[in-house]
Amino acid sequence: MTDLRRITRLARISWFACAGLALATPVATALGVFLAPAETLFAPLGFSSLGHASTAQILVSQCLSLSASCLAGGALWALARGFRRVAQGEVFADEVVRALTRFAGLLALSSLAAILTAPIVSLLLSIGTPPGEGRLSLQFGSANAFGLVASLAVWTLSRIMVEARRLERENREFV
């Protein structure tokens, strides 16, 4: 089996996996966010009771909680599109580079959204609390850092591919 054939076969598997995860991730997160009791969902932010919060506050907080997952789904969808082109044998196509760049950008936004969601939601749910009972929750973990570093690495690789394509075209003109 040739290297290109192995690459295209692996890309086909990756295409299906990324596309499936791109659809499943936001749906599964939405089910968890909207089916779980709001008190359970927001307890890690320090809210044992949400009796003070309006329905609108809770609904907006739930929707904000989906932002990182939806952006991650978009990132995976972009990556799936790139893998689809590679599966067709177009390993260095412009669409592959664009897909990698889009994936890196959306992954970085997803990581930033995951970092910013907790403080924004905690401030939103603190509206209407008695004085001294408001909360500000900050959450940053290794998964957030990994997402940011991985997005930077993929973006760098996409820029390297752009430069390699430019040099290849330039060399072709000289020959």
Description:
With 175 residues, this protein is mainly α. 78% of the residues lie in helices and 0% in strands. It has helices at residues 3-35, 38-42, 55-65, 67-87, 94-126, 142-174. Helix 4 (67-87) packs antiparallel against helix 5 (94-126) and helix 5 (94-126) runs antiparallel to helix 6 (142-174). The longest helix is centred in the N-terminal third of the chain and has 33 residues, at 3-35. The radius of gyration is 21 Å and the shape is elongated. The two termini are 32 Å apart.
Structure, briefly:
The chain has 175 residues and is mainly alpha-helical. It has helices spanning 3-35, 38-42, 55-65, 67-87, 94-126, 142-174.
Shape: elongated
Q: What is the residue-mean pLDDT, rounded to a whole number?
A: 89
Q: Main β-sheet, in a few words?
A: none
How many distinct beta strands?
0
Helix content: over 70%
N-to-C order of helices and strands? HHHHHH
- Class by helix and strand content? mainly alpha
Amino-to-carboxy terminus distance: 32 Å
| Radius of gyration based on Cα positions | 21 Å
SS strand fraction: under 5%
Q: Low-confidence parts, pLDDT < 50 over ≥5 residues?
A: none
Count of separate DSSP helical elements:
6
